[in-house]
Specification:
globular; 3% helix; binds fe (ii) ion; mainly beta
Length: 384
């Protein structure tokens, strides 16, 4: 996160005595990135975070790889799929490579167990539904349009308020960060950035739970799953401070940058990691040059696979797109508006679209979940 935050009670000086009412010590835990050199937070627990009574391997059925997947453009409609479960068990993975996974989730129930992804940071876009993200950093209430950013290693649960949630999930081995171009030399959001610190929501309050017992944490390490049994409730933190914690940002807070002629996707960027960028397209005024073409030009990105998750509105350069559709345009293949869409865009003044785009720097593989809901004719959609 770009700013310092603290919640609860912490001692005035780090790494010093901090006693509980019963005269025993709170347990300080440094939660840090890049060894001891990156951003970090210091948490103060009621119990030692290491009191794990058992660690066992488990498994979670995942989507099979689509092994003979053709190299072509593809659109698939994720709203056709629904899996019962909580925000973690209902995930369906569609695309992945060595550094990231792209999934949707359709939680119908709140999490009963706890969850920790130890190899990947997570970004969960709430397309539909509302609820609470709970962790030992505190509570974040969420609703439609929120991005939830959860750093790797955070133990969390998601409560849902309705059985009709639709989430779009990106897991990445490196952190989701505010793009460098939108920050000044001190890390503050720059004056020209499409958002500022006021738009980011850190956990609002702690719900500290002092309870002994058996608490199952489902730990995901790459493709492997483990159950760690902790002998106390994982949310036993009485206070913390620092720069590394989960947070939320709503897509409707994004103030888009527009121009006299067509602006490229990087102006619409929201997050970056070391292996992908995330942009969002939001309602905005179109270009005002007298001869401008608002629809994008054809383009061949030779170093990126492009994935667009369609949220709502009338997407200007595509036909046959529904809420929850995903287009996947692999690296090296040209793509652009479908026939008629360029001409249709001329003279248009604004768009009401919402979409989230991911450009990955390594090619993506597909799972059979893509096959289950894809449009088989999409690759021919540029032929009149
Ligand atoms: Fe594109």
């Amino acid at each position: 996160m770009p700013f310092y935050h603290k919640l609860g009670t912490i001692p005035p000086k780090r790494h010093t005595t901090f006693y509980k009412k019963d005269k025993t010590l709170h347990r300080e835990e440094l939660y840090s990135t890049k060894g001891f050199s990156g951003i970090y937070s210091n948490k103060y627990h009621l119990y030692m975070p290491t009191e794990i009574t058992s660690m066992s391997k488990t498994s979670k059925a995942g989507e099979e790889v689509w092994s003979d997947c053709p190299f072509e453009w593809r659109v698939f409609h994720t709203f056709k799929n629904k899996k019962e479960g909580d925000a973690i068990s209902s995930r369906m993975r569609y695309l992945y490579n060595e550094t990231c996974s792209i999934s949707t989730a359709t939680p119908t129930t709140s999490c009963k167990a706890f969850y920790k992804n130890v190899y990947a940071h997570e970004m969960i876009f709430i397309h539909e539904g509302a609820g609470k993200l709970k962790s030992d950093f505190g509570v974040i209430e969420f609703a439609e349009g929120d991005y939830l950013v959860i750093p790797k290693g955070v133990i969390y649960q998601i409560d849902v308020n309705t059985p009709n949630n639709r989430h779009f999930v990106v897991e990445c081995t490196t952190a989701f960060e505010i793009p460098r171009m939108f920050r000044n030399e001190y890390g503050q959001c720059a004056e020209h950035a499409p958002y500022c610190e006021r738009d980011f929501r850190a956990p609002s309050h702690l719900e500290t739970i002092d309870q002994k017992g058996d608490f199952d944490i489902y730990v995901k390490a790459g493709n492997n799953w483990f159950i760690h049994k902790l002998n106390h409730h994982p949310f036993d933190v009485v206070g913390w401070d620092g720069y590394e914690y989960p947070y939320a940002f709503n897509i409707k807070e994004y103030a888009p940058i527009v121009g006299k002629i067509h602006q490229p996707p990087p102006v619409h960027q929201v997050f970056q990691t070391e292996s992908l960028v995330i942009c969002n397209f939001v309602p905005r005024l179109f270009d005002w040059h007298e001869n401008s073409i608002p629809a994008p030009y054809f383009h061949t990105n030779v170093d990126s696979d492009e994935v667009i998750y369609y949220v709502e509105g009338n997407f200007m350069s595509r036909k046959g797109i529904e809420k929850g559709s995903i287009s996947h345009h692999p690296t090296g293949l040209p793509h652009g508006p479908q026939p008629g869409k360029t001409e249709e865009s001329i003279g248009k003044k604004e768009t009401n679209e919402y979409a989230v785009m991911i450009d990955t720097f390594a090619p993506l593989h597909s799972t059979v979940a893509v096959q289950s809901c894809m449009d088989p004719e999409y690759a021919k959609s540029w032929l009149k």
